[in-house]
Amino acid sequence: MKKLILLLMTAVMCQTLFAQRVALVRQDGKFGYLKEDGSWLIEPSFDGAFSFSDGLAGVHSKKLSGFIDSTGKIVIERKFDKAKSFDSGIAVVSKDKRWFYINKKGEEVEMPASDKVFDFRNGFAFIRQEGLVGFINPEGKVIVEPKYVKVLPFKNGYAKVKAGETWGLVDTKGQETLEPKYQEVGYPSQGVVVVKKDGVYGLMQNGTFTAVEGALKIWGFHDGENLTYAKNGENKIGFIDRSGKWVIEPKYKKARRFSNGLAPVLGSSKWGYINESGEMIIEEKFKDAEVFSKDGLAPVKVKKLWGFINKKGDLVIEDKYIIKSSFGGMTFGSSSISFSGVGFSNGLSRVGYKKKWGYINTKGELLNNTWYQNAENFVEIN
After folding, report:
1. What are the distances in angstroms from CA 170 to CA 161, 188, 193, 218, 288?
2. What is the Cα–Cα distance from 374 to 336, expressed in whole angstroms?
3. Do 233 and 225 contact (CB within 8 A), yes or no?
4. Stated pTM of the model
């Protein structure tokens, strides 16, 4: 019994550690890592840094890059000219103008010959030979032979591949799950793939193509959502279900996906929110609008800046923030980071205010009552 309790306690501790999230921030010209409770995991001390990925973070000082662990200890010496993030135990670095792969010991790892050294993403990296592209895994095994003119990264176990002028899908075993003979393909979602075949948009499911009547564009489904948006010949947007049936007539100028049962739509000149029956639940009164998060709040632009509404449409956090931006000049080690993701996650939202960045909770309270020079979204240390 004692052994069982000890095992359960260990599992809980491991889960807690795995779930810990930190954000890369810049304060007084130095980069550090902030925890969601507002305390420092690692105080600002680096000239440049990357967000944590695969348990390590790249740091940059005195024109050289290395890697730290979650205690701030340098685990790979700062000896590289440039470095990129770890994924599946492998990172790309450069020294003396040569790019190559290293493992978490900082040792160079041999990989199959490639015209260019590509980053690993979600456990796979591109390999290019004689102008054709495929994939390798972290062990250096060729998973998808370099025979395609273009490939896109794996997502949910599938990658888009282009042969000649047409697209298909391959899985992580290198098998073509959708033969490359379509003008466009989307990523699968619960067995449904958006494709364009012979100039017609439709859905592929269980090997059967179903044309969507009148569709000139279909955006991909998201797992857990029944509807996605599509555009008709009059450039109006509505929503279809997973069978390809129009369930909300195309009458909007723009739309975004459903989340928490509501989707932002642009009517004549303002944004509002509809439910899955097409009923306008929150009136069209915003200059712009984003999707609801799990916290039940959505970013909206009332005039020039952004605030947050609840599902009743009440403005519960004042519209005085910037919510999205790309820090083109913010260098983390060797390259610039573009931030993505807006709105709340785990009760906090990254926002900008008067050229500073910080985090607010769902009550609009500023974490640590502090604005930072720059700030990135929170990510898990894994």
Report:
1. 7, 11, 13, 21, 37
2. 12
3. no
4. 0.88
